[in-house]
Amino acid sequence: MKGIILFILIIASNVSFCQFRQPVVIDDDDLEHIKNIKIIDLNNDNQKDIIVSYSNNSIIWYKNENLNFTEMPAITNSMNKPVYIDYADIDGNGLEDLLVSNSADLSKIHVFKNMSDGTNWEETIIDENIPAGISRSMFADLDNDGDLDIISAHEIDVSIYLNTDGVFSNQISVANNSEYYNLVVKDYNNDGFVDFFVNSAFGLQLYTNNQDLTFTSQIITNELHALLETHDIDNDGDFDVFYRDNSQSGNIKTLKNDGVGNFSLFQSNNFNVGVVQNPSFKFINLDADTFSEVIYTPISPQEIRYRTNDGNGNLSTPNLIDSTYEYSYVTGGDLDNDSDNDIVWYAHSNFDTKRLGIIENELITLNLQDEESPRFKFFPNPVKDVLTITNLQNSKNLTIKILDIQGRLVYKNNEVPKFIVTTNWSDGLYLVQIDNTIFKVLKSSK
């Protein structure tokens, strides 16, 4: 059964509908709280699997076989409160390895090397003497020598662990004058060296790589919250930054990057998301175009929503994807190899079963015509009050649907009428679907 139509992408003479199926539960067997979800092909079968960190000390992965998911033997069952997962092929064997950090009174950084097909793991503890919780640890080439190092944000320190011939050692503290709650890593000034942002007790700070394993810090804003993400929102090749402000409503602010590491406030949107380090707020390309949308779950109501991106970074008003369960985490990836990203979700409430599941995304492309065809003619176009439809071939038993540019249904009839009143429609582009053909109609009140 199909879900709602999300939005419409017009490309040349085609129109694409991004649709979602109903949510499917893949595990509800006495689950613990989920801290992080990654979508990775662990066994090199060209199908992305689901990897989950649970609060009961375990990292579990679910093998994907044509959207049928099987719980595999745990990667670990003995890691105290695992939180954030990162991944990369660090040993060059063609398989994705995992970097996992935990948040406990005495925290550790673990690397799990994938030795075969996701069923044989070699665990190495990189650091086991961290006297504070860890928010995030990530793979990144900090010294620009061609191999991946580790950078880790602790509550009292940000440290780098250099990779020397596959061994992570030589810990270097690069920030230690505050408390650090979150971390994102990219080359923000396009000089070829990786920089990083942290949320700290001083606020949001940018650390610019001086190309010698030292960093120059700059406070961007003194607003303090844990949520921090990075993405190229306006598709200009530079990574922008997103953080939650101090408001009670959970506004997320966008800082646009000018390409050389200077940031300015671009927009503030009310997402009503939580303050956790790994928020349910992700940039996912839903329609296989060149820029990403935002999917998220607000604190209340706990449903899955999305906001479209106009390509310049401007985000739409909220649109509903699903409200079947009380969702608390959402992310996405292409689970069925059809070039559009599907959704992976976690849902729970105080009185409800905890569930892990997916929502399949199906991108449908139809032929897009102008206002005339051998079968139908629409006039006037643009239309103000009444749209006239001429059925040139007297076609029968055809359903007509009219949608706005956001994919919302504004009109439906099981027969094609001669007239449709458009007086109350908002100005803008509308798509008229008859059979498998889409026609463009413009509404204008002028």
What does the secondary structure layout of this molecule look like, with pairings?
Layout: E1 2-11, E2 14-21, E3 24-27, E4 34-40, E5 49-54, E6 58-65, E7 68-71, E8 82-88, E9 97-102, E10 107-114, E11 121-130, E12 134-140, E13 149-154, E14 158-164, E15 167-175, E16 180-186, E17 195-200, E18 203-209, E19 215-221, E20 228-231, E21 240-244, E22 251-257, E23 263-270, E24 281-284, E25 293-296, E26 304-307, E27 319-322, E28 327-333, E29 342-347, E30 355-359, E31 361-369, E32 376-379, E33 386-391, E34 400-404, E35 409-413, E36 419-421, E37 428-434, E38 437-443
Parallel strand pairs: 31-38
Antiparallel strand pairs: 1-2, 2-31, 3-30, 4-5, 5-6, 6-7, 8-9, 9-10, 10-11, 12-13, 13-14, 14-15, 16-17, 17-18, 18-19, 20-21, 21-22, 22-23, 24-25, 25-26, 26-27, 28-29, 29-30, 32-33, 33-36, 34-35, 34-37, 37-38
